[in-house]
Specification:
By secondary structure, this protein is an alpha/beta fold. It has twelve helices and ten strands. Strands 3-2-1-8-7-6-5-4 form an eight-stranded parallel β-sheet. A two-stranded antiparallel sheet has the order 9-10. The longest helix has 18 residues. It is elongated and about 100 Å long.
């Protein structure tokens, strides 16, 4: 999913639709303006992701932004209506964006297949749902998996499940399942380790505030960046508090693209730019007048800018040597001036 050596940048629509398809469609347009490569949806209903139960263990209480709410109520409010998907896929295509989704059960996968979803995303909390991963992998499309709650064994099993289904189009995203996540919990060095350890493409699903995480991730080799995106934070909603608005997302994309340019390649080549700049390096010059037959000493030669005389590495080699002509102060030294 990297685009000709560019990082694949995903704007996560998630619950940031304000209950309005017009807001959702404008969010797609804004994602394009902000420089995203893709817009990602989430395909579930409250009934496909949890149970409508008021038992205590269905009540959120882990120190999150959503504490006190029941899972069913939260997902009922946050879910993106399935009847909107077709229009949003079409709008994304019109804007030149890739549109895909995170399914949360088999019915969502079947629904997305009818929309010709080009990619599938397995959300962090679904990485342990091996039957779902198998069902998705069997569609033989690129699959992105977040690791927010995963153990090493969970990641290994998820990758094995994909490969056993004949699907090796796998991207694993480092993710911290906190909303928002703190910088000290990001542990972005995991990104290159994922790529090396599992032989897959790696990236970042970022829940930290700000844009620094994606930039550091790209410097560490991330090929995919996913960030929650909202048209305007005043819309509110379940994910608004840790999402980037259009201005912030635009700045993130710009910073990522600059980081890509700065990473470049391993380069020791002497380019024309470097050759030009070497004019300002140091070289050996006559620092006080020397008569013909005079001796080169630390008192009459010096390493200074510009770099048009002998390189300073010859300093000790020429000390004590006689010159074969008169040399004025400011003359760049040359072996031609030294007696053979």
């Amino acid at each position: 999913m990297s685009l000709l050596n560019k990082t694949f940048i995903i704007a996560e629509l998630s619950a940031n639709h304000g209950g309005s398809i017009e807001i959702a469609k404008e969010t797609v347009r804004a994602a394009k303006r902000a420089g995203a490569d893709a817009i990602k949806l989430q395909t579930y209903t409250a009934d496909t992701i949890t149970l409508d139960s008021k038992q205590e263990h269905f009540k959120i209480g882990q120190g999150t932004h959503w504490d006190g709410q029941y899972l069913y109520d939260l997902y009922k409010e946050a879910s993106l209506p399935w009847e909107w998907h077709k229009e949003l896929f079409e709008k994304a295509k019109e804007e030149g964006l890739v549109c895909f989704s995170s399914p949360f059960d088999y019915t969502a996968v079947d629904f997305l297949e009818k929309l010709n979803a080009p990619i599938y995303k397995i959300a962090s909390f679904e990485i342990t749902d091996i039957p779902l991963i198998k069902y998705v992998a069997e569609k033989q499309k690129p699959i992105i998996i977040s690791t927010g709650i995963a153990t090493l064994e969970d990641i290994e099993l998820a990758i094995k499940t994909c490969k056993d289904a004949g699907n090796d189009q796998i991207t694993i995203l480092k993710c911290t399942s906190a909303y928002p996540a703190s910088p000290e919990d990001a542990n972005l060095l995991t990104i290159p380790d994922i790529a090396a350890r599992f032989g897959v493409q790696s990236g970042l699903s970022d829940h930290t505030m700000g844009i620094e995480g994606p930039v550091v991730a790209v410097a560490l080799g991330a090929k995919v960046i996913e960030k929650h995106f909202i048209l305007d934070k005043s819309i509110g909603g379940a994910d608004a508090h840790f999402s980037l608005d259009e201005k912030e997302f635009t700045e993130m994309v710009k910073a990522v693209r600059i980081a890509e340019k700065m990473i470049g390649k391993v380069d020791y080549e002497m380019t024309e730019k470097k050759k030009t700049s070497r004019h300002f390096s140091r070289s050996l010059f006559v620092s006080s007048e020397i008569k013909k037959g005079g001796i080169l000493t630390p008192q009459n030669i010096k390493s200074v800018r510009p770099g048009i005389g002998l390189p300073p590495k010859y300093y000790y080699e020429i000390l004590g040597k006689k010159v074969n002509c008169n040399l004025e102060k400011g003359t760049p030294l040359s072996f031609d001036f030294i007696e053979k």
